[in-house]
Amino acid sequence: MPRQARKSRAGTFHHLTNRGARKLPIFGDAEDRSFFLWILGDFAERFDVGVHAYCLMTNHFHLLAEGSVDQLSEAMHRLGFLYTRNFNDRNGFDGPLFRGRYYSNPIRDDDYFRNAVRYIHRNPVAIDPSAPLSSYRWSSHAVYLGRRPSGWVQTERAMELFGGSRQTYREFVETGESVTRSDVIECVARVSGIPPQEVLVRIRGASNRPAQVCITLLREVVGESIADLSRLLGMKPGSVRAALSRTRSALEGDADLARLYAEAKEALGPVPIVALR
Predict the structure, then answer these.
(1) 151-192 pLDDT per residue, tens
(2) Domain 181-268: assigned CATH number
(3) C-alpha torsion sign, points 21, 25, 29, 30
(4) CB count in 10 Å sphere of residue 38
(5) Which residues is 82 bridged to in the sheet?
């Protein structure tokens, strides 16, 4: 069956990520990374895409971008094509470099936007937890700190959420405790008035709003990967993605679901995001 096109939503923010096929490196050296960023900056202007944050790791990358899904789809397709061609030419390879189409997660509110910026800029902690985040060359964190020219990185939106204070931004990104899976499950149970062990008993049906809210917050706040949720729920990854997509759509029209989501998120407090993989 042909893959369905992504539904277009004009002017929205998205957390975009992709990784190498078989989790192999997609960046071999500084020249690779520099070329990727050059293409990214060029396409940001050419396709009128706003890039608010980025981080290039060894076998994957993260972007926080703004635009319609049509704009982002065209830009990401061209980015992947040109970068792969250059990478293969330099290294004598052929064939696909990335594992498949990029993953896109829409960002619905200011808290999610702020936390996504934090997560993207904290990725280098996995390489060397003792190294200052500001020393990592291949993320936009130093741009936010005023240590590198902003260029095509749009920092204004995020900095508004920190009152324009670089110190407030830095403290939020470089410090803070993370919320856990248990925290989310217990919080959803509390606001739903049910025992924690019943929150994830079922994940289908309109009557199971606690489960819908729980898996959404596990994804958005804790940063559970699709693989993590698949194992937790005993579902195939595609079914997990579908469940998350249905919940995001339902949040716009189901007042009871939206209320429960808001109450659970508020009860968790202003916690930073951990991951979006």
Answers:
(1) 999 999 999 999 999 999 999 898 756 678 888 999 999 999
(2) 1.10.1750.10
(3) positive
(4) 12
(5) none
